[in-house]
Amino acid sequence: MSEPAGERGSRHPGGRLYVVATPIGNLADVTLRALEVLREVPLVAAEDTRLTRRLFARHAIPTRLTSYHARNATARGPALLEHLRSGVDLALVTDAGTPLVSDPGAALVAAWAAEGGAVVPVPGPSAVLAAMVASGLAGPRWSFEGFLPRSGRERRERLARLAADDRAAVLFEAPGRVAATLADLAAACGPDRPAAVCRELTKLHESVVRGSLGGLASLAAAGAIPARGEFALVLGAGVGAATAVGAGAPRGHDRAPGEESGKLAAARAEVERLVTGGLGRAAAARQVAAATGIGRRRLYGEDGGEPAARSAAGGRGRARAGFERWGSDEEVRPCRS
Prior knowledge:
By secondary structure, the chain is an alpha/beta fold. It folds into two domains: 14-125, Cobalt-precorrin-4 Transmethylase, domain 1; 129-326, Tetrapyrrole methylase, C-terminal domain (Methyltransferase, Cobalt-precorrin-4 Transmethylase, Domain 2). Helix content is 37%, strand content 16%. The strands form two sheets. The chain has a six-stranded mixed sheet, sandwiched between helices. Helix 7 runs antiparallel to helix 8 (213-221), helix 7 crosses helix 10 and helix 9 runs antiparallel to helix 10. Residues 4-10, 240-259 and 304-337 have low confidence and may be disordered.
């Protein structure tokens, strides 16, 4: 195996730790260099050996596998470090994509790097990059947020930071939580901010649904976006805190009356959008309250204000306005090479 230029000459006497990107769906997406590394190292640490064996079987890779995942990292890490200290190379792979990106491996890489060991990246497939370029929202500045906290103050604070940030962003989300996260993003960042929902990228049922956060939230709540498969959400670039609904804004008497009423009206409008999309009013109010910090009683109009009027033209037809669907099941074919 050829040694990277940066590792030639005098280096740490231990083995090299190769951090290898693997396909996120289509097994033909693996790189030639990844195949070379995986065939020539004596051991591969894999997040799920059963999934990695499929890749190995497809490309006739005989290398021995050992499991290394979040639940056994503390117990297995010392043995893998000892393996490297003995001067033997090791490759690290995850179930799909690049290790360490919302996947296990960070502790092992950090420990070996701290000892002065060679860490060699083998780049390749990435769900983050695939989602960003497929979304049509790519720009010169964007961030990767991973998975948002599931609930509570930490989630609200992360949503507020996203709303105040004018960069685009990529997030991962579990299928069952996509609708709630889109609703929270719409409430925090404003329903008109552009976004895309990327599902099953590089797989047979790949799809990208583009539109506004409010429209996408309504679609997800109505079941128009199937809650199955792997999801990446792309948040388009905004104009900072000026577009946010309650994000990062001062509370109580520190907020200007016009700003206060405008954000309350926007939050109530988001409740109505969610209800129009099929979500119960109580559930919609809870989601918007969690994202904005505005009390549910105020969203219901119990503070003396008037709640947003319900639209008579609701339903799935209206929810579909302003978005484009790309990559239907019929358009995406499995690679047969």
